[in-house]
Specification:
The structure is a single chain. The chain is mostly helical. The protein has one domain (about 1-120): de novo design (two linked rop proteins) (Up-down Bundle), CATH 1.20.1440. It is about 85% helix and about 0% strand. The longest helix has 28 residues, at about 1-30. The protein is elongated. The two termini are about 20 Å apart. The model is unreliable at about 125-135 (pLDDT under 50).
């Protein structure tokens, strides 16, 4: 079981990194208009923070530290959803071009919320094994 925890944690680290790379690619493709760049930078900051803070959460030394770090991931993922919505609702980027990234962000947000809830139940066992059964 313990190996499974590390396996799933590593899979989620990879998944969050891939998400970050997709956010970077989206930012690079945005038009150079003022509004696209301002909104894009907000998306860039929050979207890249998801991966970085998830890695930090994985290195937590206590349940309290994990809870704090994973809460930051949740906040940043939620903010990322907001900026993706703004991009398409303002017609800067067509929704169909953002839908896959939006869906991935939403799914990871759900996983992180469950992980935070599980961390409250399990003393310093931030296992993500149950999470992948949820997202499948």
């Amino acid at each position: 079981m313990e190996l499974d925890v590390f396996k799933y944690r590593d899979e989620l680290k990879l998944r969050t990194k891939q998400f970050v790379l997709r956010v970077v690619k989206l930012y690079q493709s945005l038009s150079k208009t003022t509004e696209a760049q301002i909104i894009g930078k907000q998306l860039f900051r929050s979207g890249t923070s998801v991966g970085a803070n998830y890695r930090a959460a994985c290195r937590a030394r206590s349940n309290a530290e994990y809870y704090s770090k994973i809460s930051i991931v949740i906040e940043e993922a939620d903010e990322t959803m907001f900026w993706l919505e703004v991009l398409w609702e303002s017609n800067i980027v067509k929704q169909k071009l953002l839908q896959s990234l939006y869906n991935e962000n939403e799914e990871m947000l759900k996983i992180m919320v469950i992980s935070r809830k599980n961390s409250e139940k399990n003393k310093f066992n931030h296992s993500v094994t149950q999470l992948f059964s949820y997202s499948s």
